[in-house]
Amino acid sequence: MAATGTGRRRRGRPGRAAAILMLGLSASCAHAIREVGQCDQVAAEQRVACAACTVKNEAKGWIGDYEYRPDNDPSDRCVRVK
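Given the sequence above, the corresponding structure tokens read:
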């Protein structure tokens, strides 16, 4: 005879997992900078490199779209995305 009701069920809030997922996704997107005006979010010594990278986006796609990723290796911070 098998005992019923002895297993433990997880009954969390249904939106909790979705909220945690959205928080993680928004945190990961915050590190890519696409506009010169957003370069004030990086450290002072990286602002010139950030501006040099993102100013390329002012050409409206003629030379591609670039993102400055301050968490990457210094040689790979200016990344072409398109």
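Helices lie at 14-29, 47-54. Try to locate this feature in the token string yourself.
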